[in-house]
Amino acid sequence: VGCDRSKNLVDICGEKNFQAFVCDALSVPIHSGSCDACISIAVIHHFSTVERRLAAIRELARLLRPGGTALIYVWAMEQEYKNQKSKYLKEKNGSKDKEEEISTGTAPRPLEDQTPDSSSGDSGCSDGLCNDWKGEGWDAKPGADSRLPVHTNRTSFHSQDLLVPWHLKGGTKKKGESVDTVLFSAGSKESQEPVFHRYYHVFCEGELEAACRTLDCVRVQKSYYDQGNWCVVLEKL
After folding, report:
1. Confidence band (pLDDT; 50, 70, 90) for 194?
2. What is the DSSP letter of 54?
3. 42 Cβ neighbours under 8 A, 6+ residues apart
4. Taking a C-beta distance cutoff of 8 angstroms, is the pair 12, 175 a contact?
5. Quick one: which of 33, 24, 3 has its CA closest to 217?
6. Most buried among 1, 149, 215, 237, by the most CB within 10 A?
7. 91-96: which pairs have CB atoms within 8 A and are 24 or more residues apart?
8. Where is the composition biased (Low complexity) (predicted)?
9. 237, 218 contact by CB (below 8 A)
């Protein structure tokens, strides 16, 4: 059984005879302890506060029966890890159309594609970016300047909190377009191609695991890096 905030995407699932419904990841209308397993792929990094990200993890744990497991994937700040570049760092050409299809929900998205648009360069987490959550638990405090940088596709990350743009191909609304996506006007040369900006909080190494360990109802079975994502497997106690 699947769920998503976007009715259009849920409708696509229905057309394919999959069971899915519309809901908020912070309030899933399923009885506590009902699920053997839950997955959350490329979702939690869209929540804009520490409290909401933790609430999303807590909601996953609530759904699990004792002994049940959850798998969580979030985008990583580090797109080059242990001297290995992520898949998206390696793919520099011929992928724009694919990205647009994926962004609008009109094409299937493999697990390995749940990675940000980045390019070569050292995008490891700097001490300044990570000290917020390492120094005081993992509760990063927002700065006085609340303006978010707009990420340049296929470049390294310079901020953990940012807006990631994508172009709506052809300037027409696609079936899977989210109703709550913010639309920004494009430049004069791209006036027929609207640019959408989505909020992301990219996670530093250890940040997702630290968040999960604040919950006493689960234990971390495994924590690992996979193609530009930080991943955790949880077990309900």
Report:
1. confident
2. H
3. 73, 74, 75, 114, 229
4. yes
5. 33
6. 215
7. 92/119, 92/120, 92/154
8. 117-126
9. yes
**69-94 confidence digits (pLDDT tens):** 999 999 999 988 888 877 766 766 54
Q: Cβ contacts of residue 191 below 8 Å, gap of 6+?
A: 185
CATH number at residue 229: 3.40.50.150
CB 73 within 8 A of CB 223: no
In a domain, 107, yes or no: no
Q: How far apart are the first and last CA of the chain?
A: 23
Q: Tokens 């506590």 belong to which residue?
A: 32
Q: Tell me which residue range forms the domain holding 231.
A: 31-84+155-167+194-236
CB-based contacts of 97, cutoff 8 Å, min separation 6: 169
Q: Which two tokens stand for residue 82?
A: 């242990």
Structural contact between residues 61 and 217, judged by C-beta atoms closer than 8 angstroms: yes
DSSP 3-state of 8: helix
Helix (H) or strand (E) holding 166: strand 161-167
DSSP codes joined into one string, 23-42: -BTTB--S-TT-EEEEEEES
Domain membership of residue 148 (yes or no) is no
Name the domain count of the chain: 1
Contact criterion met (CB below 8 Å) for 60 and 35: no
The answer as to whether 96 is a domain residue is no
- Between CA 169 and CA 211 the distance in angstroms is 37
pTM of this structure: 0.72
Whether the CB-CB separation of 116 and 158 falls below 8 Å is answered with no
Tokens of 236: 């309900």
Structure tokens at 224: 């690992």
118, pLDDT greater than 50: no
